[in-house]
Amino acid sequence: MKYLFIARLYGLKINKVLSRGIQIDGNIRISNDRNRLDRLCDTFFQKNVGTLEFDSLYNGPYVYAEGDFPEHLNPQDGNDTINFLNYNLRLSQTIGVSLWFVKDNSVRTETGFLYVFNESYRGVSSNARTSYFTNAKGQIDDIKFSNEEITQGVNMFIKTFNEGTTAELDHLKTSEVITTVANRLERFIYFLQAARNQGFPPSRISMYCTLLETLLSTDNQEIGHKIAERTSRLLGKDYSERMEIFKFIKEAYAIRSANVHGDKLSRKFRKIEKQIEISMKFDKYVRKLIQFIIADQSKMELYLKDENEGLNDWFNQLILT
Q1: Same domain, 151 and 248
Q2: Residues 75 and 148 grouped into a single domain
Q3: Are residues 202 and 287 in the same domain?
Q4: Nearest Cα to Cα of residue 85 among 95, 75, 96
Q5: Which structural domain, as residue segments, surrounds residue 262?
Q6: Chain centre distance of CA 279
Q7: What's the pLDDT at 162?
Q8: For residues 166 and 174, is the Cβ–Cβ distance under 8 A?
Q9: 141 lies in the same domain as 214
């Protein structure tokens, strides 16, 4: 029994035809080749998904996977096919995250289709993800990526994401894993998904604070001050830039405090334009920090081990030398 999974990618423009596509994770690929789409999708598939849905696939980038249907699943069992479809949708949902490692975006999938077939059986199932990702402005925009940028993002993402940790699990089991056995980089991916799902700027800024804490916090004492200090030391090139970053992080924490406690924001932060400005700047700082960590193998090992003692030693050396 063979299968085809396919879903439209929204918010993404690609500067040239990808043909077979760029492999993301497992069997998932990104493509925008209409000829390949014609070869993958026969008349039975097109008739069952409908003209509007197929035209949507045909008119933009898409994500797909094909191969042998898993032997431990029954392709004619509705629960098995939906579970396998959802598994592929969860993997597809991480594409926007992998591209986020390169630059801000609102790339997302919505409805996905699973086509299962052999000589005697054909069936098409569909399902949709409820997450609605936006960029740091809280908006939905198309953004162009080159082949090199897509590959760069995929390579960075693979270093931080363990498919077996979350993709094969349902939502409740994923939450359990994240709070018990996942390392800091895997938790970072999980919270980054949550941040990209926030269209309200103060809530998105709050999630960016959580992302920094995931990477830089080692205890619960003076967290805001330590995060500001460590972020500024890691990202600032000189005293002036470090002080700018330090003050910015402290202001972001003030917004977070008001937001999570249901208070009014300080007057200086009440205009939506100011909130968006802070969200966009914060997004760049978080990206710059994770890029720095991924580029250094010794730092990567610290985060994969996820031991506070080793991270504390590094932070102390950073601050005191």
Answers
A1: no
A2: yes
A3: yes
A4: 75
A5: 172-320
A6: 17
A7: 61
A8: yes
A9: no
* Residue where a domain terminates, one of 161, 181, 211: 161
Amino acid at 115: Y
Instruction: Return left, alpha or beta for 101; rule: phi > 0 is left, psi -120 to 50 is alpha, else beta.
Output: alpha
- Are 84 and 224 contained in the same domain? no
110: left (phi over 0), alpha (psi -120 to 50) or beta: alpha
From residue 256, how far is each of 18, 70, 89 by CA, in Å?
Answer: 41, 45, 31
Collapse the DSSP code of 134 into the 3-class scheme (helix H, G, I; strand E, B; otherwise coil) and give the result: coil
Domains in the chain, number: 2
For 258, counting Cβ atoms within 10 Å of its Cβ (0-12 exposed, 13-18 middle, 19+ buried), the class is middle
Domain assignment present for residue 195? The answer is yes
Within a domain: residue 167? no
Asked if 152 and 47 sit in the same domain, the reply is: yes
Cα distances (Å, whole numbers) of residue 164 to 6, 24, 74, 91: 21, 15, 21, 11
Asked whether residue 264 falls in the same domain as residue 180, the answer is yes
User: What's the pLDDT tens digit per position in 251-305?
Assistant: 999 999 999 999 999 999 999 999 999 999 999 999 999 999 999 999 999 999 9
Q: pTM of the predicted model, to two decimals?
A: 0.90
Residue ranges of the chain with pLDDT lower than 70? 130, 162-175
Residue corresponding to tokens 């059986």 = 121
Q: Examine residue 309 and state whether it is found in any structural domain, yes or no.
A: yes
CA–CA distances in Å: residue 45 to residues 79, 80, 236, 268: 20, 19, 54, 55
Q: Judge whether 188 and 160 are in contact, CB under 8 Å.
A: yes
Between CA 146 and CA 44 the distance in angstroms is 34
Closest CA to 124 of 69, 56, 49, 70: 49
Q: Does one domain contain both 229 and 275?
A: yes
